[in-house]
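Standup notes
- HV: blocked on the assembly model, inputs below
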Amino acid sequence: MALAGGVRVRARALLRAGAQFRGPVLGRPEPAAGGGDGTRRFANLRVLVEPDPAAGVAVMKLKSPPVNSLSLEFMTEFLISLEKLENDKAFRGVVITSDCPGVFSAGLDLTELCGQNPAHYAEYWKAVQELWLRLFLSNMVLVAAINGVCPAGGCLMALTCDVRVLADNPKFVIGLKETQLGIVVPFWLKDNLVNTIGHRASEHALQLGLLFPPAEALQVGIVDQVVPEDQLQSTALSVMARWMAIPDHARHLTKAMMRKATADSLIKHRDADIQNFVNFISRDSIQKTLQVYLQKLKQKKG
Ligand SMILES: CC/C=C\C/C=C\C/C=C\CCC/C=C/C(=O)SCCNC(=O)CCNC(=O)[C@H](O)C(C)(C)COP(=O)(O)OP(=O)(O)OC[C@H]1O[C@@H](n2cnc3c(N)ncnc32)[C@H](O)[C@@H]1OP(=O)(O)O
């Protein structure tokens, strides 16, 4: 699946601003520091990719401090890195994890949603849809190694993966807390959750805006495994090895068959979904709520 129009334009703009990339120009992997070990580690500003071509696996580390919020730049860079791996036949699986201590992702970047114009909100929401679609429909095996708090849009990313492994730390909660913020999740994210934990559990989780700590997350099925923090990466890689043992063609056709209807319902109503979002987020009352919420987040430290 290729990048959608707006996201592609932004990706090109990012690529044109090549100086921003600390690593090599995308598409031209460089040897890892120290070199000569056959690995092809690459990075843009906000995503670090550690490839292991011999295993057919790459680890993508989200590193957009402080909280890996889903800014337009972050989503664009993430999708560029993902596409690069998808276009390289050496890679069949990706482990997604965080490089920001204690936070997998804080979800939507609230500064993108505050005090901007409708065209910006439309572009932003299109990028969120694109992120979800690209991950949800990826041919590769995706394993989320969740090493931090994972609310809302962070949970959106994790839910697209084939497997979720959560580090056992009571602070590392996961879920869709949107109703607690006075907002409603989009229908496609609701469908993704229903496919994962079932209808009844989703009703409770969504209406109450539940954030599940590890034991409850495992019990409800929003994660597949909970492991000690120091075993997260090794567990994710061994889960991956099990999935990699399945012939790719059969596995990804099966994945597509299982996910097609859910993805299609967004693809068919993409523009209406964007319009809905723009109308909602542009309301004065929502803008006020957002400003108060952001202010509270900032004051937390003081
Ligand atoms: C109120 C929302 C209203 C409207 C949204 C509108 C429409 C959306 C409709 C549907 C979408 C559904 C799908 C997804 C929804 C979302 O993702 S909404 C975002 C929900 N996320 C959150 O509510 C998380 C908020 N953050 C936190 O709870 C905490 O930051 C944390 C637990 C993730 C981490 O805690 P700490 O490590 O203690 O870090 P700090 O709280 O000190 O934060 C550091 C720094 O980062 C800023 N920040 C935190 N989260 C965000 C964010 N989501 N976007 C932008 N910026 C964020 C925070 O303000 C601090 O900034 P500074 O003070 O350092 O400047």
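- HV (later): unblocked. The CA atoms of residues 135 and 160 lie 6 Å apart. The longest helix spans residues 248-268.
- Next: hand off to the docking folks.
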